[in-house]
Amino acid sequence: MCLAMKVQSLVRAAILLLAASCGGPGFAQTPPTPGAIPASELHGGIEISPRTVRSVAVRISNGDEGYNVKLLFSDSTIPPGAVVLKEGRLTPEYIQGVAGTVQKLFQQLRQQYQIPEPQIHIIGLADLVAPNLNELGSEILSRTGRPTSFIDVATDTELSIAGIIPRRYSAGNKLYDNRSISMLIDLANTSIRGGYQQIKRQATGTAEYEFVTWDVPRGSSTFAAEVARAAGESATLAVFANRAQTLAATSIRPLLQSEIAKRPSMRARRKIYLTGSVIWAMMTLLHPEQNDSYLPITMNDITTFYNRAHLDPDSLMNPDLSKISDENHRNEMRRAREVIKATYSPKTLLAGAEMLRTLAMELQFENKRVLYPRFAWFARILSYVRLEGQ
């Protein structure tokens, strides 16, 4: 069965249960004792994005309703080789750094978690765009013996929907179809991606889900670079902010309006699952004490984030963590705070806030329930491994 058909066939997800035990940037249980779990039930995955390599180990077993999934391990690693592209091509240093990281994670899945080699799957995300991807795939193959599947934007979004949006929600004593009212939006570095599932009637009279995906070719990083070029390198933060507001109105809003015109139901979806590095940064900086699997996002959050990024970015990027009582969570937020400060400058954070504010206005967030799934960073690879393991 092809990957697209497998994604379409997802009917009972265990992701919500898994997410409750692994909301942070890494999760691990004690590796299984050799022979304690049948080898056929152990599966692993490695996911490559431009800046990060993620890995998971799962147990997939038959259950009363088809299959059960248990997450054994997940982690996220930044590979060496800061320069990803040079003249549009992956640099040799980047290829070697990523391949070495994949090799290390592959050996960890093999040795610590006893996962058979054919049951470890390696994927490259749609953000990884270069004419010499085959060189990266060949280097990984030579180090691990496993091929790398480079997925397209539509499959990337479909895997995220399957891994992030629970299929059902409860009200009273009844269960309702959650995906029929929900939409995923990913404010990524190079694009704003989104998608949802809808019911499609077949000629036979039966109904099944189909995915609807869309992709706006502007992301937080590309928009920040566009604003920087227009404002000039020496521009003050106030000048940069004015230019960002102008460009959001002239280059971001028309693209969003075009996608909405093609798919009016985008505005009709009552629940939005919002992901992306800027969203992670906002929720970490504004609400570091919260660690639920799904965190509500309000228009007040978005406005506060924008205003503070504009008026007092230093304070925004240094939230007080002293009131977090749980030491492990406090340490996690301390590490996250440092990653944000190393990743974003005041200007790039402001550009992301401007994009988010524009997105919220166009899709009328004030009339919807918006949620941030803290576990979204491993949803795609976990979905992929589950599908391949069935």
Detailed description of the structure:
The structure is a single chain. The protein is an alpha/beta fold and 390 residues long. The chain contains 14 helices and 16 strands. Strands 1-4-3-2-7-8 form a 6-stranded mixed sheet, with helices on both faces. A hairpin with a 5-residue loop joins β12 and β13. α6 crosses α13 and α10 packs antiparallel against α13. The longest helix has 26 residues. The chain is globular. The relative contact order is 0.15.
Distance between the termini: 10 Å
Annotation field: number of helices: 14
Structural class: alpha/beta
User: What portion of residues is helical?
Assistant: 40-55%
Strand order of the largest sheet: 1-4-3-2-7-8
User: What oligomeric state do these chains adopt?
Assistant: single chain
Low-confidence stretches: 1-25
Average pLDDT works out at 87
SSE string, helix = H, strand = E? HHEEEEEEHEHEHEEEEEHHHEHEHHHHEH
- State Rg: 21 Å
Largest sheet, described in full?
A: 6 strands, mixed
Strand content: 15-25%
The best one-word shape is: globular
Summary?
This protein is of the alpha/beta class and 390 residues long. The protein has helices at residues 3-8, 15-19, 92-111, 133-144, 153-164, 220-231, 237-262, 265-268, 277-286, 299-311, 313-316, 327-343, 346-362, 379-389, and strands at residues 27-28, 42-48, 53-61, 68-77, 85-86, 89-90, 120-124, 148-150, 168-171, 174-177, 182-187, 192-201, 207-216, 271-275, 294-297, 369-373.
